[in-house]
C-alpha cells in the first residue's frame, strides 16, 4: 500500500511539473500510456494521479476525448492572481513573527532569489520553478500548513500563466521583478510589516497589467504589453 501511494505521489508530482513547465501545454491530452511509459511505472498510479489533477482543476475530463490540460480565461487567471495576493498578504504577519525561528527557510529563499537575479535569458522553465518556490517558501514562513496547501493548489493553476508570460517575453524584461525578491527578503529581516504589505501588491502589478491587456485586446503585442506593465508599476510608486 505504501509503495502504491508513493508511486501515486511520484506520478502526480511529475505530471504537475510537466504542466507547470509547459511540457504539457493547455489543451493537450494527457495520455495515460505515454506518461506511464515515460515514468517507467504502471498505468494504475498514473490514472489516479490524473484524477487528482482533475480534482484540483489542473486538468479537465471530457466525454469521449479523455483528459486534457485545463485552459483558463483571462478572468479566471485574474481571479487566481487575486487569491494569490490575498494569501501572501495574509502570510506577512506570521512570516515576520516566525522569521527568527525559520533560518533554513529564509536561507533557501535567499538562494532562490540570488539564482533568479542571475537567471539565463532563455531558461524559462527554471525561472518559473524558482518564482513559484520563492513565494511558496514565503507563505510557508507563516507557519500555517493549511494556508500553504491552499496556496500551492492555487499556484498549480497560476503557474501556467507565469509560464505563458515568461515564454512570450525575454527574461531580461522580468529582471526588475526578479530583483524584487531580494527586497522582500530584506523587508522580512527588518520585520517591516507595513512596507511588506505595500510591496507585495506592487510586486504583482506587472501580472495584473498583462491580464488586463489580454482582457481588453484578446491577444498581445509584447512590446505594447511591456509598456503597459512598466506604466502600471510606475503608477504604484506614485
From TrEMBL:
It comes from Anaerotignum propionicum DSM 1682. Pfam families: FCD, GntR. GO terms for molecular function: DNA binding; DNA-binding transcription factor activity. InterPro entries: GntR_C (IPR011711), TF_FadR/GntR_C (IPR008920), Tscrpt_reg_HTH_GntR (IPR000524), WH-like_DNA-bd_sf (IPR036388), WH_DNA-bd_sf (IPR036390). This is DNA-binding transcriptional regulator, GntR family. The keyword DNA-binding applies. Keywords: DNA-binding, Transcription, Transcription regulation. Transmembrane segments: none annotated. PANTHER family: GLUCONATE OPERON TRANSCRIPTIONAL REPRESSOR, TRANSCRIPTIONAL REGULATOR, GNTR FAMILY. The keyword Transcription regulation applies. Gene3D superfamilies: GntR ligand-binding domain-like, Winged helix-like DNA-binding domain superfamily/Winged helix DNA-binding domain. Residues 5-72 form the HTH gntR-type domain. The gene is mcbR_1.
